[in-house]
UniProtKB/TrEMBL annotation:
Record domain SET: where: 39-270
A Pfam short name: SET
GO biological process, one term: methylation
Species, as recorded: Drosophila albomicans (Fruit fly)
Molecular function per GO: N-methyltransferase activity; protein methyltransferase activity; S-adenosylmethionine-dependent methyltransferase activity
Alphabetical keyword list: Methyltransferase, S-adenosyl-L-methionine, Transferase
TM ranges: none
Protein name, entry field: SET domain-containing protein SmydA-8 isoform X2
Family annotation (InterPro entries): SET_dom, SET_dom_sf, SET_SmydA-8
Keyword Disulfide bond among record annotations: no
Coiled coil ranges: none
Length: 445
């Protein structure tokens, strides 16, 4: 079986318990006061995949389409992130140890002094204490991650119907999340119906969830959040809408381009500045489909050459790009000497660039990164390659957000040049007023 077949093999979908019309009504109920009086969109069947969101009138570039509160949310509990954040408000609990951050009632969940007596925590606390955590002195990421799923217990009837109306791709691996959580408790439930409800919720999360980001107490908080309406936006590599988060539990979706009435509203499931092969690999591994949008079928990616590498033929300084767009292992052709190279050879060069640049990103100061990008990278990587673009973005983020150093005028000039280069690429891609553009021009934080 080829790599392409493995990544895109059919993943069974769980039965959806509502028609598109019923789903639209559940969405309206879910939005509540956030539902616009006259929405510019409607939920309908999509030729791309399943259900989608379509414009019912012309929509102007930059127009806010909707705001939405999460249906379910909880910590991502990724290792390497600070687990000592309150599960409700995301502020840092008092103290420096896990034991000080954990609820004093013994539920095993980190919670701050203001939220420990809240009604929201009381139900979760009671449930986790009933299951008896095995360790009440340390925060267990397995138990913490299952919290977003366990919160399905506390949904009302309409919310449960909405959860079951969402697309949920079944995957045997997803059950491991429940099994890993069960290992943390003495009396985790074994009732088949309850475990099936958990499994359905995990599948809905892994099919639709966002990693919502916000700044709390000076640190970035990443939560796993389920937004049913935003989750119905289908993928395009150059979409006409983008999102950002007001806080960890509220998403805002805006049009990045003018959208004609009747057109489907789309977003990107990948980073906009990834190369075609990087996007295809990510979509195949996480979403089990191969995108065939116009950008994916153009080897030059609208003239951005995000995939380009240097020709390996002696004496040639040309750019080499993949010449086939419907495979994960394409041949590569030099635009100057027209020599063709096998994918395996070019993949090694791309991996070398990726590893070399990422190692510098993780270890270098901003000043050293600027020197590396300007002086050393041109020896082995074209300035258009997506990995080098990621390095330039890293410099922009660090200089804009961290602000720990005083930068010389020439360093600030390099930052401005990187920003202009990236804005030019976004323009070529037709990305419009995308979130990335707003972030690097500091229109939003």
């Amino acid at each position: 079986m080829s790599q392409l077949q493995v990544l895109t093999e059919d993943v069974p979908q769980m039965e959806i318990s509502a028609s598109t019309q019923e789903l639209a009504a559940l969405i309206d109920d879910h939005l509540g006061p956030l539902r616009p009086t006259s929405p510019a969109w409607q939920v309908a069947d999509s030729p791309i995949s399943g259900r989608g969101i379509f414009a019912v009138r012309p929509i102007a570039k930059g127009e806010q389409l909707f705001r939405e509160h999460t249906l379910l949310v909880g910590p991502t509990a990724h290792r390497g992130r600070n687990l000592r954040t309150c599960i409700n408000c995301y502020h840092l609990p008092a103290g420096d140890t896990d034991a000080e951050a954990l609820c004093s009632s013994g539920c095993g969940l980190p919670v701050c002094g203001e939220c420990v007596e809240s009604p929201r925590h009381a139900l979760e606390c009671q449930l986790f204490r009933k299951w008896q955590p095995k360790d009440v002195q340390h925060i267990d990421p397995r138990a913490l991650r299952i919290l977003s799923v366990v919160r399905c217990f506390f949904l009302n009837e309409s919310q449960r119907k909405l959860l079951y109306a969402m697309q949920a791709n079944a995957d045997r691996y997803y059950m491991r999340e429940v099994q890993r959580a069960a290992e943390c408790f003495e009396h985790f439930p074994h009732d088949p119906d309850m475990l099936e409800y958990f499994y359905r919720t995990v599948c809905a999360f892994n099919t639709n969830a966002f990693e919502s980001r916000c700044q709390v107490d000076g640190q970035e908080i990443v939560a796993r959040a389920l937004f049913p309406l935003a989750g119905m936006l289908n993928h395009q590599c150059t979409p006409n809408a983008a999102h950002h988060f007001e806080d960890g539990e509220t998403i805002v979706v805006c049009a990045t381009e003018n959208i004609a009435a009747g057109s489907e509203i789309t977003m990107s499931y990948t980073k906009l500045l990834w190369s075609t092969l990087a996007r295809k690999m990510f979509l195949g591994m996480t979403k089990h489909f191969m995108c065939q949008c116009p950008r994916c079928q153009d080897p030059t990616e609208n003239g951005t050459y995000l995939s380009a590498l240097f020709c390996r033929e002696q004496g040639c300084k040309g750019l080499v790009i993949p010449v086939q767009t419907k495979t994960l292992q394409p041949d590569w052709r030099c635009l100057s000497c027209e020599n063709v190279f096998p994918h395996a050879k070019m993949a090694r060069y791309q991996d070398f660039a990726l590893n070399t640049i990422n190692n510098r990103i993780n270890t270098c100061s901003v000043r050293d990164m600027i020197h590396f990008i300007n002086e050393l990278c041109p020896r082995f990587c074209p300035p258009s390659n997506y990995v080098l673009i990621e390095a330039k973005l890293n410099v922009i983020w660090r200089m804009t957000r961290l602000g720990a150093e005083e930068y010389a005028p020439e360093e600030l000039a390099h930052k401005d040049r990187y920003r202009e280069e990236i804005l030019a690429i976004l323009h070529k891609l037709g990305a419009g007023e995308c979130t990335l553009k707003k972030l690097i021009t500091e229109e939003i934080q």
